[in-house]
Every structure is written in structure tokens, then in C-alpha cells.
Amino acid sequence: MDTPKKNSRREFLTKFSVAALAGATLSPLFSKEQDTESDAVEVRNFTESIESLLGGDYTNIKLKMQDDVRRALKKPVDQRRWGMAIDLRKCVGCNACTVACISENALPPGVVYRPVIKEEIGTYPNVSKRNLPKPCMHCEEPPCTEVCPVGATYKRKDGIVVVDYETCIGCRYCMTACPYEHRMFDFGEKYGDGLPFPAKYDERPSFEYEKEWKRDKPEESPIGNVRKCTFCLHRLEEGLLPQCLTTCIAGANYFGDLNDPDSVIAKIVSRLNVTVLKKEMGTKPKVYYII
Amino acid sequence: MKKLFYVLWIIGLLLGGIGVFQRLTTGHLLAGYGSRVVWGLWVAMYIYFIGLSAGAFLLSSLVYVFRIKMFEKVGKLALVTALITLVCALLAIWFDLGHMWRAYEVITRPNLPSSMMAWMIWLYTAYFILLLAETFYAFKLENNNDSAQKEALSKKLRLLGSIGIPLAIAFHGGVGALFGVVSSNPMWHSALTPIFFLVGAIASGSALFTMIVAFFWEERNSAYFDEMMQLLAKIVLISVLFDLLLEWAELSIALWMGSPEHTFGYREMLFGEYWYVFWILHILLGVMVPVFLLATRKKPFAIGLASLLVVFTFIGVRLNIVIPGLVTEKIHGEATAYIHPRLSYHYFPSSMEWLVAIFIVSVGIGLFVIGNRYLKLTQPKHSLNS
Fold first, then answer.
1. Is residue B201 assigned to a domain?
2. Are B334 and A219 an interchain contact pair (Cβ–Cβ within 8 Å)?
3. Any idea what the CATH number is for the domain that residue A207 is in?
């Protein structure tokens, strides 16, 4: 494929230089065409770039990112800035991250931190499908924390937006303020509801925020609280990657310290084909999408 | 008639008690709202009652601040109405909290100045204290025969009322601003929202007050009563029409050229599943019929009936602020991304929500009946300057 392309480009360039010599008035037309072609090749050629990101002794990008996390942990908390990137070209929409997150955080029915929005584009036979995993954006300017009447939800020094379960009064104002509709209310539902006996897996505690949260009584936290993705803070603190990353079968997720120029994530987010959701809101999300 | 009323009231309280019991023992498990339509009937009731309170209070200021003679005899009735509806509002929002017993935190650790909800809570706490003080002095004034002391008391009332007017405007405008500041919600995020709340408060609050006077005032065959009814009817008529004008402004501006995503909530409100809440409950029964009655009829019964319609249908206006604002997907495809009843954009209040609502209304009616029996609110007594 490459050879004829290069040839055609060479031919094109020759023609172009002739044209440039022939008359300056014609040149804008040709130069425009040339730009489009070279951009298309460069931006889409991502596989090669990932390998260049690896470097050193790494054969697995996840191990490199885990080392990025561990390196960041050695710094004071206010110098870390956690961020995530999701490659939409690689995401296959398998929901492995959704399920892993539910399992990791022992989420009850109706609470999901990482749904995957699936969109069909076009009409048969010209159809494609776009999958968009949607964790908390951990905005640099989170609108949700501003509105909390008791200051129970706030942005940590490392940029992770958290909810203090023991303070949250469950007014749900933050849920209305989030432009990404990320936040979830824990109604106290159980998977075993309706069964003649309690289901064992409902008794599993959640270890969010490095504490043990059980769900025995109504209105005992986290029941009656607003809940959200924490970038698996409890795992991060132990030097582990968020659970959604480790289970992604396509390797579509990247994570690390945005403040560390050597980290995989910092190298990814500076690319041209990286964007965020609802940029116009000015919330400065720290979850980036590679498109 | 009275017996029937008491029987109905007790049934309401008992049924409501079942709802409260369910709410206290099972938390929010039986509620109809979810993580998409996060607020439901109780929040609508909260803004409804708090509007009634602010409206009734502003009416009382006509007596204690502007000293309009016409309303002298009904000043304390307006104050007590404001107090009772405020209690109902606080009950409604208290049941809505995920952690009811942490409600004190809004006082002990408010997130000021950034949270509009924290502002609102502090403002209505100040308003509550002021309302108690003003009611206390209003009764003291009435039971005092010494003219020097009376003068001092009415000065105090005037001062309290004068503080109360900006406070009532600030706190109810604050309730509107609570919705208005949510920039991610195109339906709420409008500079008109707080103003709409205030005008709605005056419309519904004055209608409630007019209804009470029309049906419960004891000295009915007097020129005073007739004259007062005519004036009240005018206040209700003008405020209902002004509210309609604001509604038109909001809807027409939003819908004229609005992008589909921005106007989804409005279109749901007008032509969606609950179209009848807007067209039948609000426009027909809450505006057209009352406006016709108020403009053409002079009898207290007709005025009372018109006011009753305005008061009862105004819950529809409040529901139409809360619910349609929440039924829009903020990111396209959200509705089908993860399927669970709690993640649905459909909302209808559950039986528990209705029962708790009945409880709150029954408590309000009960407080009014008891208050009226012991404080003789609907009986004329000495006026301020006699």
C-alpha cells in the first residue's frame, strides 16, 4: 500500500513544483491538497506511536503506566494530577470496564460509574458503531463541587473529585449540576431483592476511599449518598491502576500523572486527535478521548 | 360538613402516616425518582410551599410595613399562613434528603459562598426566626390595650416587616436561583428563573390567603369583608396574569429558534407524556377559569373558588419546573447506555411519595385548624390604630 502512495506523492510533488514555478496564483489549490494528505497519514498512524511511547524494557504498556503511577506516588499529593485517556478507535464496546468497576467498588443495582454509550452511525449497509465509555471526568473546574451545600464533595489536591460519604446529606444537587450526568444516588437496592434468602454477594463491602462500607441498614452510608467514580483511589494509593484499565481487552485506556512529562498519559494528551466531552462548558475534564 | 372535614383529615393523616413509616424504615427504596430524574414530587412540593409562604408573607407586609388599613384585621392570618406553609416546605425537603438526620450540617458546615443551596438555607432560617418574632409581636399588639405600648409594638413590627421584605425576596429568589445557576441545565439556566419564582410566590401565596379569607372569615355580612375581597381578587388576578406573561417570555424565547437539545424539556412539558399538567391543570384550571371568575364575578364565593383553583393547580407549575428540566439526556445515548429503572428518564411519583405528600398537606391543614381555633385568626378584632 505504502509504495504506490509514496510514488504518487513524489509525482505529486514534482507536479507541484512545476505548478509553483508556472504561476503563484495556482499554488493555494495544490498546497491545500498536500496538507490534507499528510495530516491524514500522520494523525491516524497511532499504533506506531504507542510503541514509541513504550521505550526501555517495557513490553506491556499497562506495566509502564503502573510504574508511572508508582513514580507519581513518590511525589507529594499536590504535585500529582491524575488523568485518563480513552482511545475510541480501539474500544470494542464489550463493557468489561463497566463490569470490572461494579465488581471492584461493590456497586449496587442502578449505580454505575462507567457506562458505555453506544451509538450507531449511518444506515445499512453503510453503518459503523461508536462506543464511548463515560467515567467521571474529574474536571479541573468541577461544577458539582461548587453546589454542595455542606462541602461534602470536593476536588482533592491530586485532582480527583471525591464524595465524603460521612458528610453527604443526599440532597442530590450535585447530580443536577454535573454536565456529564455522571453522579449516581445509592437507593439501597440489592441484587437479591425479591429472593427468598439474602444473596451473599450483596454483603460484600465496598472499599472506596480506603474504608470498608457495608450495606446493612437503610440510610447507612453509602446508602442515601451520592456516589461517583474515584479513579479507584483506593487502588491508586496502593500503586495499582484503576480497575477499568486492567480489564480492558482492547487496551483502549491510558492513565497516569499528567504532571509527569515522562508518563504515557502526558505524551498522549498533547496529541492533535485528543479531545474532551463538552469542551464548551469550560470544565476542563481530565478524561481525554482519542478519536 | 365539619364532621366530614375532620373524618377526611384523619384519614389523610393516617394514610400519610403509612407513607412516613415507609420512608423512615426503607429509606428511598420505594421512591419513584432515580439517578436521572433526581428530584420528584417532594422537591416540587418544597418550592410550592415555600412560594406560598413567601407570597403570604409579602401580603402581610401590606399591613405591618405599608399600613394599608384594609388588611389590618388579616395581618396575623397572613403571618400564620406564612409560618405554616414554611413548616410544610421544610418537611417536604427533609423527607427528600438521603440522610435526614444529617440535615443540621447545613447550619454547622455550610459551603458558603459558592453553594446557592447553602445561601437559601441560611436565608430561610433567618426568615423563619423573623417570622416567629413578627407573629409573636403581632399577637402581643392585638392583646395590648395601652396606646403607648401599642405604638412601640407597631414600630417593632414595622421594622421586622421592613427587614422581612428584602429577606423574603432574597430567600425565595434564592430558591429560584438554586435552579437558575445550574448552567448544565438549559431549562433552568435562565435569568428569569428567580423572578418567575417570586411572581409565582405572590400569585399562589395571595391566592391561598384570599381563599382562606373567602371561605373562613367569620364576619361575612359586612361592607369591610366585601371591599377586602374585591381588593384581594385584584391582587390575585394581576399576579396570575403577570406570571402568565413571564411564562410566555420564557417559553417563546426558548422555543423560537432553540436547538433541539435545549428545547427538549419544554417540548416534553407542552406535548410530552404529561401534557395535561400544563394544558389542563395549569392553563385551563389554574389560569383561564380563575381569570374569568376574578374578572367577571364579584361574589366572595366565586373569588374564593378562583383562588382555590389557583392555589391547588400551582403545584403543576412547580412540577413543570422540576421534572421537565431533568428528563433530557445530557449526553446523547445515555438512556440506553446502562439499563436500570433508576437510570430511566421516565418519572411518576410512587405511592410512598403520594402518601408522604398527603401527610405534609394534612399536617399543614391540621396546624391551621388548631391555630385558628386557639388564635382566632379568622375573627375580626381591634385594628392597629384603634
1. yes
2. no
3. 3.30.70.20
